[in-house]
């Protein structure tokens, strides 16, 4: 028997809601809390005694933030 329209809409809404809940901590939260994640990364590198230049492959330039606005 075919599901009623209301129940099929609830199933679709439930699947989309579960996808949003799964995506939030992996994608959305780091974008919103960018400063927190940058400090966590710096702290981790300092704890391990690493520098970005040391772990960067020699054929590639050292990574820099392309969205970091340069103030004149």
Give your account of this protein's structure:
The chain has helices at residues 5-32, 34-48, 52-55. It is mainly alpha-helical. Helix content is 65%, strand content 0%. 0% of the residues are buried.
Indicate the topology:
Blueprint: H1 5-32, H2 34-48, H3 52-55
Could you tell me the mean pLDDT? 83
**Radius of gyration in whole Å, from Cα?**
21 Å
Structural class: mainly alpha
Could you tell me the strand content as a percent range?
under 5%
Count of DSSP H/I helices: 3
Order of helices and strands: HHH
Low-confidence stretches: none
How would you summarize what this structure contains?
This protein has helices at 5-32, 34-48, 52-55.
